[in-house]
Specification:
Helix content: 25-40%
Distance between the termini: 46 Å
Strand content: 15-25%
Shape: globular
Bound molecules: cytidine-5'-triphosphate, magnesium ion
Number of strands: 12
Radius of gyration: 18 Å
Largest sheet: 8 strands, mixed
Structural class: alpha/beta
């Protein structure tokens, strides 16, 4: 039975956060008085279309995460927490396996993109709902990108106009995402797996706030953004 919306979101959150440093898994890291995964899931839950959220958490923390997340989203939203895998792709596959059968639209969203706004979720979901098999949010590339060889010698300057930086949430017709994950080949994102099936992937405008918290600099940026949200006017 679909409660709330017609969209299920799979949230890979089982990474170690090695580049962020310290022993705590990234999803559990403190961020602006609460925790990183809490921010991510709360924003997903604020999107009207979302009826179900499936989190792939570090295996030792599944019960803890399930208990702590329940207060982050409205009671109508189905919340499922499963154990993640050794790679992001494996974690997504575990999560996908736990999406209730009722949902035909599935989004995949990195917990590390904790500040992705609800309207980005809606923008991606709307295009899948309109019939597209696979949808990704993208931003223009701001840096000049060069192709180099193993010695560090520049081979070519790639035309930036044709390049896009890809974010999450990525949205899919459920059947297509399942087909894409059936195969054992590796890709750095879910759309990459879908492309290998020869299926069209379409872009929508991304959002700078959906940046991935990877390093200490990213964490500092997230803190600043969150503080500016609850600063009194004129402060
Ligand atoms: N992820 C996951 N399972 C893994 C590895 C990663 O669910 N085995 C998730 C992370 O929790 C994160 C997303 O995939 O939400 C993107 O991964 P990344 O930003 O690389 O996070 P980590 O792998 O945790 O960080 P690092 O690579 O620095 O260790
Ligand atoms: Mg990683």
């Amino acid at each position: 039975v679909i409660r709330g919306g017609d969209v299920a979101v799979v949230v890979p959150a089982a990474g170690l956060g090695t580049r962020l440093g310290t022993g705590t898994p990234k999803a559990m890291r403190e961020l602006d008085g609460t925790w990183l995964l809490g921010h991510a899931v709360r924003r997903l839950g604020q999107a009207q279309s979302v009826g179900c959220i499936v989190v792939a958490a570090p295996s030792s923390l599944v019960d803890d995460v399930r208990r702590r997340l329940r207060t982050e989203v409205a009671a109508e939203i189905a919340l499922v927490v499963v154990s993640g895998g050794r790679t992001r792709q494996e974690s997504v596959r575990h999560g996908l396996g736990a999406v209730p059968v009722d949902y035909q639209i599935v989004l995949v969203h990195d917990a590390a993109r904790a500040l992705a706004p609800p309207d980005l979720v809606e923008r991606v979901a709307a295009v899948v709902r309109a019939g597209r098999p696979a949808v990704i949010p993208v931003l223009p590339v701001v840096d000049t990108i060069k192709q180099v060889d193993e010695t560090g010698q520049v081979v070519a300057t790639v035309d930036r106009i044709a390049l896009r930086a890809v974010q999450t949430p990525q949205g899919f017709q459920r059947q297509i995402l399942e087909d894409a994950h059936r195969d054992e080949t590796v890709a750095t994102d879910d759309a990459g797996l879908v492309e290998r099936l020869g299926i069209d992937v379409v872009c929508v405008a991304g959002d700078a706030a959906a940046f991935k918290i990877t390093t200490q600099l990213d964490l500092a940026l997230a803190q600043v953004l969150l503080r500016s949200l609850h600063a009194p006017p004129g402060a």
